[in-house]
Structures are given as C-alpha cells and as structure tokens.
Amino acid sequence: MSDGKKAKTTAPRQQQIYDAAVDLFWERGYFGTSMRDLAARVGIQTSSLYHHNGAKQDLLVQIMQRSMSGLTASVQGAVDGTQGARERLAAAVRAHVLFHGDHPREAFVTDFELRALEPAFRERIVRQRDAHQALFENLIADGVTGGVFEASDVKMATYAITTMCTAVGTWYRPGGRLPIGDIADQYVVMALRTLGAGP
Fold first, then answer.
1. 89-141 confidence digits (pLDDT tens)
2. Among 112, 134, 109, 117, residue whose Cα is nearest residue 21
3. Which of 50, 54, 96, 136 is deepest in the core (most CB within 10 A)?
4. More confident residue, 182 or 47
C-alpha cells in the first residue's frame, strides 16, 4: 500500500479516536475514562489506540492544544481589522462566546482537565492560555488608557470577563431558548457594562 493510501485510511480513524476522547472526557472526565473505554467507543482493539494516537495523555494534550489554538485564532481574527476599543473588545467577547457555543465539549475538557496534565504538558497549555488571556488584557488596558473603559485592576477585569464568557460552554445547548448568536450579543453588552461602557 502506498503512503498516500495509508494516509487516507489512517486519518478518519484518528479523527474517530479524537472525537471519542472528547466525548468520553466530557462525559466521564479524564481520570474516569480508560483506554479500553476509548477503544470500545471507536470499535477497535485497545492496542490499536497506541498505534494511532499514543497514550491517553497524548489525546488530552491534542484536545487542549487544538481547542486553545482554535479559540485564540477565532478571537484574534475577529479583532484584526476592527477599530475602536469598544468595538474590538465586543468582537473578542463575541468570538470567545461563539467558540464555546460551537465547541462546548472541547472547551469544557480544556477548561476543567488541566489538573490531569503531566507537568511539562501543563506548562505548555498554560502558556497558550496565558497568551489568550493577554489578548483580552491588552484590549481592556487600551480602553482604560483611552478613557473608554473603567477598571481599577485590568487583570482582574480580564479574568471576570473571560470566565463569564467561558462558562457558556457549560450550559449552552443547541436548540435551546436562545441561539448562540443572541447569547453572544448579550454577553457583549454585559462585558461592556462591566467596564463602564454600555452599548
């Protein structure tokens, strides 16, 4: 079999394993999920998991890295090209909420399973998380400097707003009372009001 054919047959299986890990870590937690559980969910032998994706820790790292990279790219993309402190923060908050609404399970695992990471991996993910927080911190600091926002402690204001937005992933369900776009709009209003800059 050629390398090209191997890639075609391997990629879908890797995605199946990744998706199963997301679902099971979300349902049962990292420590409550075994490799046997993952294998059973995908329908393969446990030994095949190590061939495709390595250890369970590797899967958790993949989920967290992909989630953090996607979240940061979404927020940065929304902010780029947007002018004005209020508008830039609004774009960032909206993108943050939409990502958590669109990827609730990955976001949940990333937010709540950090304790399960081995030290070297934890340091790597924390650096990604801190870089994402810095996006918001810089936006808020710019607004405070420009007299648009009010915040006695920019870092604390950043934590308050991002934590509020991140929590959407824990309770939002598609088909609920409000679509995720409307929820994002309301969170923009709440974030701006937190900083003394109403809509």
1. 999 999 999 999 999 899 999 988 999 999 999 999 999 999 999 999 999 99
2. 109
3. 96
4. 182
Question: Coil, strand, or helix at residue 104?
Answer: helix
Tell me the C-alpha distance between 33 and 22, whole Å. 11
The model's pTM is 0.85
CATH topology of domain 56-194: Tetracycline Repressor; domain 2 (1.10.357)
**Inter-axis angle of helices 104-112 and 3-28, to 10 degrees?**
70
Outline where DSSP puts E strands in the chain: none
- Report whether 63 contacts 21 (CB < 8 A): yes
Candidate CATH numbers 3.50.50.60, 2.40.170.20, 1.10.10.60, 2.40.50.100; the one for domain 1-54: 1.10.10.60
Q: Is 22:63 a contact under the CB 8 Å cutoff?
A: yes
Where along the chain do its domains lie?
Answer: 1-54, 56-194
Burial of 177 (0-12, 13-18, 19+ CB in 10 A): exposed
Return the structure tokens found at 21.
């890990």
